[in-house]
Amino acid sequence: MSSNVVAFAGDWHLSGNWARHRIAEVGARGVRTLFHVGDFEIRAGLPGERFRAVVDEACREHDVTIYVTPGNREDWPMILGASVDERDDFGPLAWFGDRIAVLPRGHRFTHGGRSFVSLGGAPSINFETCVRGVDWFPEEMITRDDVAAVVAGGPAEVMIAHDAPDAPWQTGQVEGICTHNPGGWSAMALAYAAIGRRRITEAFLAVAPELFVHGHYHVDDSRIVELPSGDECRMVSLDCDGTDGSLAFVDLDTLGPAAGS
């Protein structure tokens, strides 16, 4: 495998056994950098602490470091209030373990000769049935200021997010979910979710990446989408814990799937 390969993982939802399995797979392929696209579940309390301890131990064992672009199912006040530390060339990050770092919204960095931008957060479509401050945090929503900062930063080659942009810049399966509402969500829930997609879309079009990777919709899909400039972007949606489609290997030399993927 090329030495310039990284891994991307979809939603883990506090599943320690699944996380161990995927980290071992990444390490066995000689890949040292794993980008997690959200719903990792950075949580306060014992379940969150135990999960992070399991993940950190597996990362040390297999020499893997995880960089998390947070999703909606995270304790956002805990993330936003965390101190930052510049341990490596990714810049100042919030570290939740020896090998677990959270990327701030709009964070830009260079890795493997490629420019990256991370824009975490997404609306919880089930927020109406959640308890504020327990399993739903309004800080999950990407703000207008977050978007403005990403737009001002200009293009990047790779964009990592939890949510997806609007159609026509979605994979086929994500477009189907957004169009047909298979979950039967209320009009208020759909409107809330749409705000997040609109904000991601504005940032996405300004960044104009060659590769965009996200989670959130729990589907394994990819599609080449055309940007307004006429350039192309490979849109990748990752599935969640318990599925083979929740892990992807990318060769940064080509920004395509790594050999053997």
From TrEMBL:
Alphabetized InterPro entries for the sequence: Metallo-depent_PP-like
The protein's name in its UniProt record: Calcineurin-like phosphoesterase domain-containing protein
